[in-house]
Amino acid sequence: MVQMCRMAGTLLLTTWLCSCGSGLAKLVLQPDNDLTRFRAGPIDTPWTQPKVLSFSFSAEDVEIVALKVPAGTSGAPPSDLATPGTPGAQSSTLDFFYHFQFEKEFIGATLTAWCRKHWYLSYVIAFVYLLLLSAGTDWMKDKEAFNLKGPLAMWNLFLAVFSFCGMVRTVPHLMALLSEHGFMYTVCRAATISYGNGPAGLWVCLFIFSKYVELIDTWFLVVRKRNVGFLHWYHHCTVLLYCWHAYVWEMPTGIYFVAMNYSVHAIMYLYYFLAAVMKRPPKWALLVTIMQLVQMAIGITVTVIHIATMMNRTVPNCDGYLPNLAAALCMYASYFMLFAQFLLLRYCIQKRHKPANKLQ
């Protein structure tokens, strides 16, 4: 029965983004990074002039990230759509954060194009992941659990430090965007313009690829003969699928997902590290679950606003892709219900004091 459920889950997850996938064929055919594919009309949104957000560009780099205007539209892009790094741009509000040169020079267009070309990769990995999960669980049935306390502690510490570094790079960038350009800028301006380059762009890219690496979490559970619940593998698969698809479509609101997830994971993996090295796990497991619920609630809110903005055209030519947003809304809503169920069962009904099962 368990294997049948997992196989059913495999099929469901393979087709989970089928509505989004209908647009991937057209997307793959795009040889460049022309953001006009998001638009139904001229670029006429009155955004304020972007400021330098902790990175700089050379003249050649600017050509990569600049918006292209369709022929026959109402004129060239207004000055308020100037590319970050152009003459007259104001100094960064993030100068007090030290950034390495390789971070400043990062241009996301190349990796975005690579991910666009290999859009199927996340589907293949998710499918193989579920097959290996089923096979690994069966293989461990007649074997003793491995004692991996040391490696597990180091693994969780690595992910905690990695997530903290990502949080330091993405959260201030999001705050700067909100402060300097307003909320609707973060909702409607594609990643290439708002957060796809420089330190924030690099750590967003690392975030996308880290979802493959985090699948190792499940391996630790399997070889230690711990229960791998539905929430665990469902979360890993859907996040992997959605993040890859959102990165390909350069979704504007992706910066919210990345910044929040980095922040929650920094705390969560620190908790798991301390639980692995201490005789008694910390007493703030409930805090981690509450943070996850808050993350999902904010994600639902931002996604609903983005969908409403695009459907009602309250912001002309708002960037985004509605099938991706629909998938995001379903994903966030399902996470919220599953984490709420976990919280109620563990802290309100069962009232146990055992270490929390790994959720992500």
TrEMBL record:
It catalyses: an acyl-CoA + malonyl-CoA + H(+) = a 3-oxoacyl-CoA + CO2 + CoA. GO terms for biological process: fatty acid elongation, monounsaturated fatty acid; fatty acid elongation, polyunsaturated fatty acid; fatty acid elongation, saturated fatty acid; sphingolipid biosynthetic process; very long-chain fatty acid biosynthetic process. GO terms for cellular component: endoplasmic reticulum membrane. It is found in: Membrane. InterPro entries: ELO_CS, ELO_fam. One of its GO terms (molecular function) is fatty acid elongase activity. It is a multi-pass membrane protein. The keyword Metal-binding does not apply. It comes from the Eukaryota. Its EC number is 2.3.1.-. Residues 1-25 form the signal peptide. The chain crosses the membrane at residues 120-140, 152-171, 255-274, 286-309, 321-345. Keywords: Fatty acid biosynthesis, Fatty acid metabolism, Lipid biosynthesis, Lipid metabolism, Membrane, Signal, Transferase, Transmembrane, Transmembrane helix. It holds the Pfam family ELO. PANTHER family: ELONGATION OF VERY LONG CHAIN FATTY ACIDS PROTEIN 6, FATTY ACID ACYL TRANSFERASE-RELATED. Belongs to the ELO family. This is Elongation of fatty acids protein.
